[in-house]
């Protein structure tokens, strides 16, 4: 029998081997079943976790909503990673791979990598304490180093911060040394109002105070009625008065803009002028002519 005939005979025996195709079919069915079961269990566990947190929301003692959102995302990630790792092990076992040997080898390799990947270990440990100590949570507005924005996600290794212009900054947790969290407490809106020197200051203060007492009913972001502190500064062409207002976290910018608009409209209604920059010019020649003769000579 020639080599070509042996080759074609081998190919024919391969495609006509019932046992081989049976094993391939069974293996394919097992892999599809494993993936489907993994996906189903993942959804069931995630729904269960979310329902548990919904029940905790009705309890008299519960953790903050910020921390709940952070823990939910973290648990979702953990469930996904664990289940798909188990699915990968089961798929390898379906192919006849010695899983025990792989796990034992992976343990030794992991130990060796652990010594070399100290920065990764540092990221994971720091991420754990960020979540455990509730330093900041998803949705908080924070400043970390040179980056400032809303926290998009917190993982065990990295933290994602989205700035107000849309950029997403991904920071390793090990690099987070100092955090400024703007969302833990109420904010304060500060507005400076300029009044012309020619205006009646007491009347202006009375008009502004009457307006400030009406605003909390209009703007729900105001925690307390705005307060007129008084005269803040004497500027070149105006008297500056300061208004402050306690607001909900991170709503002070919106409230400050609203205060400026409301105060401007109310002052216009009462004919109280908010001055614009002025420039006074003196004619030196005319001034010199009005000077005494001796003063001109001395000049």
UniProtKB/TrEMBL annotation:
Q: Where in the cell is it found?
A: Cell membrane
Q: What is any Pfam family matched here?
A: MS_channel_2nd
Q: Give the GO cellular component terms, alphabetically.
A: plasma membrane
Q: What is its main location?
A: membrane
Alphabetical keyword list: Cell membrane, Coiled coil, Membrane, Transmembrane, Transmembrane helix
Q: Does Ubl conjugation show up as a keyword for this record? A: no
Give the record's membrane topology: Multi-pass membrane protein
Which segments cross the bilayer? 31-53, 74-95, 101-121
Q: Which residues form the Mechanosensitive ion channel MscS domain?
A: 120-183
| Domain Mechanosensitive ion channel MscS C-terminal residue range list | 190-274
A molecular function annotated in GO for this UniProt entry is: mechanosensitive monoatomic ion channel activity
Q: Which residues form the Mechanosensitive ion channel transmembrane helices 2/3 domain?
A: 77-118
Q: What InterPro entries does UniProt report for this protein, alphabetically?
A: LSM_dom_sf, MS_channel_1st, MS_channel_C, MscS_beta-dom_sf, MscS_channel_2nd, MscS_channel_C_sf, MscS_channel_TM-2, YbiO_bact
Q: Which residues form a coiled coil?
A: 194-221
Source organism superkingdom = Bacteria
What the protein does comes down to: May play a role in resistance to osmotic downshock.
In the record, the note on similarity to other proteins reads: Belongs to the MscS (TC 1.A.23) family.
Name of the protein in its database record: Small conductance mechanosensitive channel
Annotated source species: Thermaerobacillus caldiproteolyticus
């Amino acid at each position: 029998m020639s080599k070509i005939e042996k080759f074609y005979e081998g190919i024919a025996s391969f495609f006509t081997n019932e046992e081989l195709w049976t094993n391939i079919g069974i293996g394919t069915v097992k892999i599809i079943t494993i993936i489907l079961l993994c996906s189903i269990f993942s959804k069931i566990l995630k729904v269960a976790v979310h329902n548990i947190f919904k029940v905790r929301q009705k309890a008299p003692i519960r953790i903050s909503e910020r921390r709940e959102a952070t823990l939910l995302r973290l648990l979702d990630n953990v469930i996904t990673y664990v289940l798909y790792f188990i699915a990968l092990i089961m798929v390898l076992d379906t192919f006849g791979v010695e899983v025990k040997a792989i796990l034992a080898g992976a343990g030794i390799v992991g130990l060796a990598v652990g010594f070399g990947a100290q920065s990764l270990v540092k990221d994971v440990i720091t991420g754990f304490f960020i979540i455990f100590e509730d330093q900041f949570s998803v949705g908080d507005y924070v400043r970390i180093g040179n980056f400032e924005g809303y926290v998009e996600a917190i993982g065990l290794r990295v933290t994602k911060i989205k700035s107000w212009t849309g950029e997403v900054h991904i920071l390793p947790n090990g690099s987070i040394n100092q955090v400024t969290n703007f969302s833990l407490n109420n904010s304060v809106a500060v507005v400076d109002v300029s009044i012309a020197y020619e205006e009646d200051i007491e009347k202006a203060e009375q008009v502004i105070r009457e307006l400030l007492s009406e605003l909390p009913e209009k703007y729900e972001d105001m925690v307390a009625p705005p307060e007129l502190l008084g005269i803040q500064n004497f500027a070149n062409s105006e008297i500056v008065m300061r208004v402050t207002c306690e607001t909900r976290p991170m709503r002070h910018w919106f409230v400050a803009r609203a205060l400026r608009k409301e105060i401007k409209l109310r002052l216009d209604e009462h004919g109280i002028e908010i001055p614009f920059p002025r420039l006074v010019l003196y004619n030196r020649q005319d001034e010199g002519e009005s000077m005494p003769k001796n003063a001109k000579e001395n000049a």
